[in-house]
Protein 1
Amino acid sequence: MSAVGIVAAAGSGSRLGADRPKALVELAGRPLVAWAVDTLLAGGVGEVVVVVPAAERETVAAVLPGSVRLVDGGATRTASVRAGLAAAGAAADAVLVHDAARPLTPPDVVARVLDALAAGALAVVPVLPVVDTTVAVDAAGTVATALDRAALRRVQTPQGFSRRVLDAAYDDLPVGEELTDDAAVVRALGIPVTTVAGDERAAKVTVPHDLHLAELQVRR
Ligand code: C5P
């Protein structure tokens, strides 16, 4: 099985409050996007496409291996992944979509996703259990219901798919409809999504505290 990786790196990262797009924010002296690309290659992905903010193409190219292809992103994550899929070579039979915002994802997670695809899964997501009591609130912020956390999972990336299935799912998704991850796009087609174990180190860098934690992790 051959796999192409798509790294979604075209977000602005406004919640991080940095002076540059999030993918170019540095962790231990290297931009987040470079960490994410390394993880995919180390985990067994053969080819990588990175979706970047159009204005940052050259800056991103300068920090990545020459074999990585770059493509301009869109206004939303869904639009960016669409652009990445369109640019991905046709040869690979599997595709892994990864967030640049998860720089410390261990290559083992990538390998688990690839193994599940090789075993026949059409769609695979890494997940972690929910450890906090989790509730739903109404519009006023009052607790409406407590959810059974035993059945809940936090979903990470990279998410893996049969190339044929992900192409079909994005073709089927009406333009302008935005979903927060790629597994949701595939589930809209009625395809079952398999889970494998995620990793706390694959946490997403969203706010400044997340970056502090990531810095502590690499310094250990
Ligand atoms: O905003 P959020 O943290 O959920 O974004 C997840 C990932 O999607 C990030 O790696 C970000 O760079 C990417 N993204 C993108 N294009 C957008 C918005 C987000 O590639 N327009």
Protein 2
Amino acid sequence: MKDSVTLHGKKFTAFLSEKEILLAVQKIADDIARDYKDEVPIFVGVLNGAFMFASDFLKCYPYPCEVSFVKLSSYRGLTSTGIVETLLDLPEQVEGRHVIILEDIVDTGRTLQELVHMFANKNVKDFKIASLFYKSEIYNGEYPIDYFGIEIPDKFIVGYGLDYREQGRNLRNVYQLKKQPMINLVLFGKPGAGKGTQAAFLKERYGLKHISTGDVFRYNIKNGTELGKLAQSYMDKGDLVPDEVTIRMLQDEVEKATEASGFIFDGFPRTTAQAEALDNFLESKEMSIDATIALEADDEVLIERLLERGKVSGRADDQDAGKIRNRFEEYNAKTAPLKAYYQQQGKFHSVNGIGEIQEITRRLSAVIDQL
Ligand code: IMP
Ligand code: MG
């Protein structure tokens, strides 16, 4: 059994071995066989999660029986949404029959409630629930779990049919989510240094959310949010948008990303005052910046890159070497004090931004891995 697996940038550590799981499956089959040896029950597996359990369970079940499946879904990522959709209905003639539900896991119990509804007016002879895993601490307890295999604490698990964002179902063993310490980064770099490209890799590898201030502004203004309107009102007067407003937009982004293992701030802070405001905001959330990383590249190389990009994208500000140099000067003037600010906190790192994309990602990861 592997010690850990990584799915969508999240790390899961070994929790239950295939052997332990199969023993539990066998025990459920034995218990049900004892109770139903004189009947022909219909086992109803709940897709997708219970496919593996249903398969192994049926191989352990020694007497005549039928099998069918329904499909329900309540999880989106790591949390139960409370919305249980019925995706596939019961096709079988179940009237007068003994129905035994095969669930992979009972968590809050919402799915179960939906299942009970599905069978409520079907005049079944009796209705039982068998669940391989059972989170007793959070189950609402509305219906008895007639048979269960293994009681587990309130941890998110994957493997043996269970998924994290559709991955991990194929694992023979079960792994549990490792609560990773948060990683919060500020990414610096001149226009063309490859921040966007690298942020895309880092966010996947470390499960981070990339917050590009430019994108956040455009989003709020385009969608006419309260904050977007507020920001626009300053811009209409030709004033700079106060840091307070920007911070509030960032705060919204941070609060929306409940599943992120951390954040990559890009485009903010640009001044020491903004860096202080960001520190204060993060402190109020019991978070902090772990590292600021500057992607360094020679001006002449960047100018070449930007002019190339300008040809393709048609972006006017990328087509004029003079304008590009002005943007670089502005960057130098503003980021220099920021560098000092973060150096003082021992958080400043610089990474050579010239080379193969993968090689640069490797350099950045080396900095992050030793945080
Ligand atoms: P409930 O409706 O909250 O009881 O959730 C039950 C469903 O959510 C299960 O059938 C699973 O599909 C999914 N689920 C609950 N807990 C976990 C978990 O720890 N890992 C993966 N899926 C889970
Ligand atoms: Mg399920």
